[in-house]
Amino acid sequence: MRGILLIEICIASLSTLFAKPSIYLHVMEFKNEELVEREIEIADYLLRDFSLKQISEKTGLSKKHLAAHLRNMMEKLGAQNMVALKKIFKP
Question: Which end of the chain is more exposed for a tag (fewer CB within 10 A), N or C?
Answer without folding.
Answer: N
